[in-house]
Amino acid sequence: MDSSSLRIYRVIGAVQNVIANAKTLDEALQEGLKTIVENAGADGGAIWYADTSDENRLRPFFWIGPVDLTRRSHLPGDGSVGRVYESQTAERLLEFDALKDVETAIDFTGLPVSSMVCVPFSNANANLGVIQFVNGPDSEPFDDEGADVMEIMAMMAAMAIEENEALAEPWQPGEVIMQLRDITREFKNGDIVTKVLKGVNLDVYEGEFLVLLGESGCGKSTLLNIVGGMDSATSGEFSYLNQDLSNATQAELTEFRRDNVGFIFQSYNLMPNLTALQNLKLIAELVDDPMDADEALELVGLADRKRNYPSQMSGGQQQRVSIARALVKNPKVILADEPTAALDYATSIEVLQVMEEVVKGGTTMVMVTHNEEITRMADRVVRMRDGRMHEVTINRHPAHAVDLVW
Amino acid sequence: MKPTQITELLANIKATFVSFFSILMFVALGVGVFLGISWAGPALQNAFDAMADEGQLHNYQVQFVYGLTDDDLGKLSETEGVSQVEAERQSFQTLRREESNYTVKLQSLGQEIDVPLVVEGELPIKPGELAMHEESAAKLGIAVGDSVTFEHDVVQDETESLQADSGDSAEPKADTSDGMQYLHGDTFKVTAIVNSADYAARSSETYGYSNSPSGAVDALAWVSDDAFDAAAFRQGYPVVNVRSESLEGLGTFGDEYDQKSEEVEQRVSELGDVLAPARYDELHDKAQKQVEDGEKQIADGKKKIAEGEEKLKTGRAELDAAIAEGEAKLASAYQKLQEGEAIKASAEKKLSSARSKLNEAESVLDEVDAAIAEVRSTASDLKSYKASQDKELKAKKITQEKHDANLDKYGATQRSRIAPIASAVGVSLPSINHTNYGDAISGMNSAVDAIKNTSVTVDGKKLSYSSARELLGELRGEYSSKESAYNSKVQELESGWAKYYAGQQELEDKKAEGEKKLADGKAEVEKAKKEIQEKEPLLEKAKQKVAELKKYDWTVLSRSHNAGATEVLTFSDVTKNLSISMAALFIIVGLLVSYFAVSRIVHEQVAQIGTKKALGFRKGEITKSFLLYSGIAVLAGAIIGTIVGYTLVEGIIGGTLSQMFAFGPYPAYFGWPLFAIMTLLELALILGATYLACRSILKQHAVELLRGEKPPTGKARFYEKWALWDRLPLFVQTIVNNCVNDRRRMISTIVGVAGSAALIVTAITLNNDVMKSYDRQYQEDYGFNTIAYVDNKVEGAVGNVDSVLQAEGATTAQVFMKRYLVECSDGDSAAMRIVVPSDQETFAQLYHENPVSGGEVDLSAEGAWVSQAYGKHMGAKVGDIIIVDGGDGSKHEVPILGFYDFWLTYHEMVMGGDYFHKEFGDFSPNVVLAQVGDASVADLGKKLSGVEGFGSIVDDATAQYANFEMFSSVSSAVVAIYLVLAALMSIVVLLNLNVMFIDEKKRELIVLMINGFSQKKAKSYIAYDSIVLTVFGIIVGVILGCIMGSITVAAIEPSTAVFVKNVDAVAVIVGVVGSALLAFIMGKIALRRIPKFKLTDINKQ
Question: In a mutagenesis test of the B interface, which of A234, A254, A343 is the best target, namely the one with the most B β-carbons within 10 Å?
Answer without folding.
Answer: A254
